[in-house]
Design a protein that fits this description.
Helix content: 25-40%
Distance between the termini: 32 Å
Largest sheet: 6 strands, mixed
Oligomer: single chain
Radius of gyration: 17 Å
CATH topology of the largest domain: Nucleotidyltransferase, domain 5
Order of helices and strands: EEEHEHEHEEEHEHEHE
Strand content: 25-35%
């Protein structure tokens, strides 16, 4: 799989797109506005195709994350897989985020967002290859997270939107990872290499929003895994 030309895209927290062949990064783009990801992705893919040829595999982050961004990424990936006639692989956007963090070994809190007293995140061990699940993606009551991670033996890093939440980072005694140095699309490629990203059917694959759209959200008073 490492010798195949893989096009990876994720729009859980801004659009990240990368084209890789083996260890070579052929092209990469980042756009920090997930809601307008659809205005960029197809033009970037076409630029990559003209320069390097069509991809042999598509990888997409399935969420959780921005409701609009995740939907755009999954729809685009399904269309591209059909158009290029190549297999489609999907994986957690949070696991891809953790796999893209350069520091190793470390415990990575890969976050989607904070909503009132809830946070949406997954916890991963970032080793030299990929990212191993420690706590699967879920919704947490905010006070519970420091209690669970207080036993972590490795350095704790926070990536994603919650890296900018100073109170959250301080409560974890963690170090924030700047969004500018993390490319989730490259993390997706690593998940394909490691067999973590699984082949999905473009006809049936659906985003994993992990939460309802904002218009339907209601406050919840208890820890409730998804």
């Amino acid at each position: 799989m490492r010798d195949r030309r893989i096009l990876a895209l994720d729009a859980a927290d801004g659009l990240s797109l990368a084209l890789m062949e083996g260890e070579a990064l052929l092209a990469a783009w980042e756009w920090r506005q997930p809601r307008s990801a659809g205005t960029r992705v197809l033009a970037w893919v076409e630029e990559a195709r003209r320069t390097f040829g069509p991809p042999e595999c598509i990888a997409v982050g399935l969420g959780p994350g921005s409701f609009t961004g995740v939907r755009v990424a999954v729809t685009a990936a399904k269309t591209l897989a059909w158009g290029f006639g190549c297999p489609l692989y999907g994986a957690s956007s949070l696991q891809a985020l953790a796999a893209a963090v350069a520091n190793a070994p470390s415990t990575v809190v890969a976050s989607a967002e904070r909503r009132r007293s809830h946070v949406f995140l997954g916890v991963y061990f970032r080793g030299h290859e990929g990212a191993e699940v420690l706590l699967p993606d879920r919704r947490w009551m905010l006070p519970t997270v420091p209690e669970v991670l207080g036993r972590a033996e490795d350095p704790v890093l926070v990536a994603g939107p919650l890296a900018g939440d100073a109170a959250f980072v301080r409560a974890l005694k963690a170090r924030p990872v700047k969004a500018a140095v993390v490319r989730p699309a490259e993390g997706l490629v690593r998940l394909v290499w490691g067999g973590v990203a699984v082949a999905v059917d473009p006809r049936t694959v659906e985003p994993n929003y992990l939460r309802e759209p904002l218009a339907q959200a209601t406050p919840r008073g208890e820890l409730e895994p998804e």
